[in-house]
Amino acid sequence: MQKLEKERDTLRDDVSYLQSQSMRNNLVFTGVVEDHTDGNEHADVTERKLRQHLQDAFKIAREVADSIRFERVHRSPGSPFAGKTRNIIAKFTFFKDREMVRKSWKQLDATQFRVFEQFPRDVIQKRRMLFPQMKEARRLDKRAYLAYDTLYIDGTAVRA
Predict the structure, then answer these.
(1) I need a surface site. Which of 18, 32, 55, 146 has the fewest CB within 10 A?
(2) Same domain, 52 and 84
(3) What is the mean pLDDT of the chain?
(4) Radius of gyration over alpha carbons of the chain, in Å?
(5) Does the pLDDT of residue 160 top 80, yes or no?
(6) Is the dihedral angle over the CA atoms 43, 45, 51, 55 positive or is it negative?
(7) Which DSSP letter does residue 84 get?
């Protein structure tokens, strides 16, 4: 029984890793207004809004924002309805473009907008469990950061 449980856990980790690899070029953008007039917002409209958002909120030059290539830009799954704005999920063609946008997150301070990496559900759960430990370590002036599903405190790995 223990052997089967261990094998199951290993398979879950493998599936989670594969999911995360398929999401590694994705960023999730929150707070970008959604058009509800025609039901579901068309992907072209969403991409246009994202490019404008990159210029306005991230302070990225228009030429640079227009040169970024996306494989796909869409809203989070679910039915759109008034009063609720679904997140935008953007799959970048080039990892360098994704990192340039992600590292501009400080431009979003004091706004309602946020940007973050996309992870599978189980990785998000692990990160949520590790987050309080990270905050406590930082409060104690230790170097702490999350990488995937692992917390590093002064170079030592801590897993959930």
Answers:
(1) 18
(2) yes
(3) 92
(4) 18
(5) no
(6) negative
(7) -
Same domain (yes/no): 86, 148: no
- To the nearest 10°, report the CA torsion of 42, 110, 124, 129: -160
pTM: 0.84
Q: Would you state the structure tokens that stand for residue 37, as one six-digit string?
A: 């007039």
Three-state SS for 52? helix
18, pLDDT greater than 90: yes
pLDDT tens figures, 1-15: 999 999 999 999 899
**CATH number of the domain residue 15 falls in:** 3.30.70.1820
> What does the pLDDT look like over 83-118, one tens digit per residue?
788 999 999 999 999 999 999 999 999 999 999 999
What's the CA gap between 92 and 98, in Å, rounded? 6
Is residue 89 domain-shared with residue 41, that is, in the same domain?
Answer: yes
- Within this chain, do residues 40 and 106 fall inside the same structural domain, yes or no? yes
- Same-domain status, 114 and 76: yes
Q: What residue numbers bound the domain in which 107 lies?
A: 2-118
Cα separation, 55 vs 64, in Å, equals 9
Is 55 in contact with 62 (CB distance < 8 Å)? Answer: yes
Can you say whether residue 78 is alpha, beta or left, with left for phi > 0 and alpha for psi between -120 and 50 degrees? left
